[in-house]
Each structure stands twice: as C-alpha cells, then as structure tokens.
C-alpha cells in the first residue's frame, strides 16, 4: 500500500506518522511505500526510513499535484494548509494554497483516473472554522457553514469539492473537521488559540504561561493523539456507511478554561496552576468570542470516531506522549 | 448608474430588464448605462436601447471578466450559469463556467479595487440546488448545504466566495437562492423540472402537456415576476441588515402538483385540466424525489423579499405577463 501524506511536517502529520511507524496494519494493510510532502522536507520516524520518499513542494505549484498523483498512491492524507491567521493576512496566498492547491490535487486524481481507472481514498483535514458565529448552544451535524475567515471559507469550499468529487466516483473522500488540538506540543506560538495549550504545556514543564481571556471561555478540544486517531480511523472506515455527506465534525470535549485549570491542578498540583499568569488581551478575547464553543457531533461518534471525554485525559495523553510519562 | 447584467439573455435576465425599462428608479437611481452580457448577444427592451451595450462573451474566458469590470459598473447582476443537467453531464464545463467564471468576476472586482477604490454591489443568482436530500420537513435558514449535483456544488462554492469577498469589503454581495420558477414562459424544455410549468403553460395555450409524476409531489415555487422582484429588491436592500450571512433562500410557495392542477381549474376551467396527460416517468420521478419540497425562508421574508402565497396568483401572473391578460 502506497500512502501519500501532504503536510507531513505539521503536528498532526507527525503524530500520524508515529502511528503508522509503530502499529502494523493501522491503515488496514501493510504500508510498503510512503511519500511525505511539505513545504519543508519532512522526515519519517526511523522505522519508516527505508520505504519513505520525502519531498519539499507546494501543492499549488504547477505540476506538483500531478507529479505526486502519477505515482498512484492508494491513500492520500491532505493535511497541508496556510493557517487561519496567515490566510487572513495574505488573501492571495490563502486562496492559492488552501483552495487552488486542494483543487489541483483533486483534479490531478481525476486526470489520472481518466488515463486508467484510479480511485484512491482521500482524507482531508478540515476545521471547525467552517462555522461562524452566531451559533446555537451546541452546533449540530446539519448546521450551515458560514465561515468568518478566509481560511474557514477555503476549508468549506474544499469540503464541497471533496463531496462532489466523491459522489462522482473520482475518489473516496472524507473530510475531518478537527477541534482545537490541545495540548499542542512544541513552543508557544502566536496563534490566537495558542493559550489553550500554553497554560497546560508550559506549567507542566515548570514554565510560566499567559492566560489572556476569562476562565469562563468555553471551547472545543481534542488531543493530538485523538487527532491522529481520527485520520487513522478515516483511512479504514467503510464509506458506504458515511453516505454522500462526507464532511464530519469530529467528536471533542467542550470545556472552559476553568475546566482546563482544574484538570491541571488534579494532574500536576497547585504549584503548576500558580505558573499561569492572567494578562487580559482584548484582541484575543474578541477573536475567541466568535469561535464555536460546543458541538453535538453525533454522526462522527456513531461512525466510530473517538475523543477524550475528560480534560484530565487530554493532559495525561500529553504527559505520556510528549514528556515520557513524567512531570 | 452603470448596471451590468451577466446572463442577460436568460429568462430571469429578460424579466429584470423589463422592470428596469418600465419602472424609473427601480434600482434606486437613474440607470444611465447598461451593459448586457451573455454567451449569445442579448437584446435590451426598446426603451433601454440608447443606453445599452450588448456583448457576447463567456465570463470564464481569459480577460473577459477584467474587460467588463474595467468599466466599473455600480451594480452587477450575475445570473449566468451552465444549468444543472449540463453541469452534471459536462464536469469540466460546469466547473469552468459556474465556478471559475464566477471567481474570475469576483477577482476582477478585487483587482480593480486595488487600482482605485471600487466596491460595487454584486447580486448573484444561486439556487435551492445547494441543498441535498434527506431534508427536514421544512428547510430552515440554517440548514447545511450538501448538494447532490455538481451544479449545486458550484453554486454553494460561489455563495461562500461571495460571503468572504463581501466580508473583506471587496464588494457588497448578496446571493439569491431561487425557488423553481413557474410558470416558465417559452417552449417545453427537457429539464427534469419542466413539467411543473408545462402542465400549466401548455393547457393555458390550448395545448396538451405531459405529467410524469404523481400528483402528491410537493415542490417550491415562485413566478418569474417574483424572481425579477427578488433581484430588484436585492439591488436596493440595506446590506447592513443582512449582516455577514449573505446568501438567502428566497420566499416561495410550497405546493403539490395537485395544488397546481386545482389552481389551473379555478383559473382556466376543467377544459384546461383535461389537456394534462398522465405519463409516468420513473427517471423523472426519482430525480424529483431528491429535490427540496418546502422551506421556512424566514430571513428573506423579514428582509422584505416577497413571493406569491397562492398558486392562483402564480397562474394569473403568467396570464397577465405572457398572455396579455387573456386565455
């Protein structure tokens, strides 16, 4: 089985690679060939070295998608995107990469299939940014997509293309709308959502972290471990059961910042909590106010997608996966 | 005021032109210049001749959109599309015209605005084909768009672009999701929805018509007169009131074929009804089964969009507008 991962250098891509490296048959068969793509050359975990080819390329460059698809991969994970803030700041780059790049991939698959029958599975990383406020208390599976960012617009468009191309039999697509991933490993970053992870990750490492919003802010979370699980599950799921509505809001955990902090205290003690410094930021507060808070992601749950149900588990997953089980 | 109508040779375009020709100030100011575009050269009603320039061009051709936008029209009606059946049969043509053509128009407006501030009003003809079965009994304003045709997909994508470009201040856009237009003037055509009009228009003209489905088929209608009214209203509506959710399901009338026939009998007598010949067609029956039946189009109604509430009025509008008031 030849697996192509576009956006393999990103956090979710790396988590997914770890699963492929350490769990035989996790994608439903033996992975005999792996192609990893990102704008910087991605690296494979050691056990996958021998079967991996890594490429630095941009999907929106002329011919890039066709070059990847000419190898006729069986499973394609499309995780690559210009993130929300950058897509908002750079209109043309966001549309070029997130929309044109994705469409180039889909059209390359179609062109390959016109030469000789070809119908790979395509697993696309979408986002709850396809939704825009005002929201109902819980966003159901049939709520409309009225994004309030260009990034969300590009994801929503890609979802529509994915569903139509799948309906036409061009490929077997499934769109995975990710919750906010928490605890994000790595350094604090400037994403407006960064603090949700920072206030856990930094104290767990004995470092101070800044909380820019009130503790009653409610948001929608899943761990990096769950995110990798969503993609693995999507790779083997019977798509007949999914039907024609191919884009699914993933299950997650709706929690307040207060819930996060309480979980941190239970897992790591009051000392960790004392490392959180309150520093209200009106801009971040306003951005976060427009974000989805809670979902009723029933379809995905019925289809077997799983996420944490308690914040303690999200923190424990971080300690196990990133800190060698110790704090 | 310079008005550009793209798709001006179509039925809705002609109805809109009649309104502009015969109602001073219907678009909120004096129309001093009119540019009409279609793939065949459109014609203006007599009174508009002196201010009209007609062009035969395809919006998806290189440079076509820029050429139109270089003239900086104040109001742009974008009514042009490859229809549902053709977009389904010809994948590339549908995406090229309905998606790339629309995006070329939107991007040409953006490019013009980067030269010198420019923010026209853009009124886009969308369709209830953005929805796909299964449906709730009434489709509300927040129901999700999961089209089951490439045409519906292209319209749903254009809606997302329109909302994002409007949010960014590139233009002031509004998307008008049209019900099935009935009674369509002209000859019977092969559209699967044609019979809804045929069974009224033909008997009213003393001709036989074929009914391929059961009488309990429920569907969503507005007259050509209402359709023109939607676009006229959209041209002058205060978009602040619409907010960021710029695509609106238009009001309409939910009626069964039985309701249509009963209205025909009330307006034109039993003789007309006897001209309807039952000829069940399994293919058409199946296609129609996937179509929306009823809507709760509350937002558009609150914003002042109006349609018929009784089928008799739909038939009378046809008699007045197409048959000189006589049958």
From TrEMBL, chains A, B:
Task: State the UniProt keywords alphabetically.
Answer: Carbohydrate metabolism, NADP
Record Pfam families:
Epimerase
The protein's superkingdom reads: Bacteria
List, alphabetically, the SUPFAM superfamilies matched: NAD(P)-binding Rossmann-fold domains (SSF51735)
* Domain NAD-dependent epimerase/dehydratase, first and last residues per copy: 3-208
Q: Does the keyword ATP-binding apply?
A: no
Kindly give the CDD domains that the UniProt entry links to this protein: Gne_like_SDR_e
**NCBIfam families this protein is in?**
ErythonDh (NF043036)
Q: What is this protein identified as?
A: SDR family oxidoreductase
Classification of source organism: Bacteria, Pseudomonadati, Pseudomonadota, Alphaproteobacteria, Hyphomicrobiales
């Amino acid at each position: 089985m030849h697996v192509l991962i576009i956006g393999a250098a990103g956090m979710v891509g790396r988590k997914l690679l770890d699963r492929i490296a350490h769990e035989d048959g996790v994608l439903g068969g033996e992975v005999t060939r792996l192609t990893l793509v990102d704008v910087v050359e991605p690296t494979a975990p050691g056990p996958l070295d021998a079967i991996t080819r890594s490429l630095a390329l941009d999907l929106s460059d002329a011919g890039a998608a066709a070059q990847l698809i000419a190898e006729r991969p069986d499973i394609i994970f499309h995780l690559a995107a210009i993130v929300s803030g950058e897509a908002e700041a750079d209109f043309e780059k966001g549309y070029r990469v997130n929309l044109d790049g994705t469409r180039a991939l889909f059209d390359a698959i179609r062109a390959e299939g016109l030469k000789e029958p070809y119908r790979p599975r395509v697993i696309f990383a979408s986002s709850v940014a396809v939704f825009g406020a005002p929201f109902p208390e819980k966003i159901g599976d049939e709520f409309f997509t009225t994004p309030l960012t260009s990034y969300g617009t590009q994801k929503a468009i890609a979802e529509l293309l994915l569903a139509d191309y799948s309906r036409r039999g061009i490929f077997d697509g499934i769109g995975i709308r990710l919750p906010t991933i928490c605890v994000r490993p790595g350094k604090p970053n400037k994403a407006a959502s960064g603090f949700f992870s920072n206030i856990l990750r930094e104290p767990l490492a004995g470092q101070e972290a800044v909380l820019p919003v009130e503790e009653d802010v409610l948001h929608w979370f899943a761990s990096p471990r769950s995110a990798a699980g969503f993609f693995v599950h999507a790779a083997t799921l019977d798509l007949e059961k999914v039907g024609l509505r191919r884009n699914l809001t993933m299950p997650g955990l709706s929690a307040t910042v207060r819930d996060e902090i309480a979980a941190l205290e239970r897992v790591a003690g009051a000392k960790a909590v004392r490392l959180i410094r309150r520093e209200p930021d009106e801009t971040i507060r306003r951005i976060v106010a427009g974000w989805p808070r809670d979902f009723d992601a029933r379809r995905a749950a019925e289809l077997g997608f799983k996420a944490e149900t308690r914040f303690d588990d999200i923190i424990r997953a971080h300690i196990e996966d990133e800190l060698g089980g110790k704090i």
